[in-house]
Structure formats: structure tokens, C-alpha cells
Write a structure and sequence with these properties.
Layout: H1 2-17, H2 22-25, H3 31-54, H4 60-89, H5 98-103
Helix pairs in contact: 3-4
Amino acid sequence: MGACFALAAATGLFIFYIQPDASDLAPHRSKLDQLLERRDTIHDNLRDLRFEYRAGKYSESDFETMKNSMEMEAAMVLAEIDQVTDSMTRRPRGPKSAAQRGAS
């Protein structure tokens, strides 16, 4: 009898007092959204790196190494963005209809 009461109490607490995680309610982000966010983050990091270099926090060789690394990462992200947007804008290739054959 005590086990049934404990189980009922635990179920009641779970239903009425445990709040869902905010990430469970957030809409899922698309691959493009994730890539655009990553691109913006890299841009911000490059801007901060340039500022810190000018402030004297990094030597020129360290600055160049980090800058080149971030620029390579940015180039890869931009290439992925191009791939994603190209795949979103491509039309399916199927047999042409009679109207399309006549227009060609």
C-alpha cells in the first residue's frame, strides 16, 4: 500500500511541479541557421582578434597563425552555406513536359 502511495505521489510531483526544459520547447534550427550563426561567430572572433592584436596582446606570428586558422574555418563554413543554399534552390530534374519541350 505504501509503495502505491509513493508511486502516486511521485507521479503527481512529476506532472505538476517539474517544468520542461526551454530547449525542448524551442523550434529546431535548420542546418542553414546553424551555419549562418557559425559564420557570424567566426566574424566576431576575427574582429576581436584584430582588436587584441592592435592592443599588443599577441605577437605578429601568433596573430597570423590564428587569423589564418579562422579564415580557413570561415571559408569552409561559407562553402557549406553555398552547398546548402544550392540544394535548396535546385529544381528536380525529371522528364520535360510537352509545354517545356515546345518552348525550348
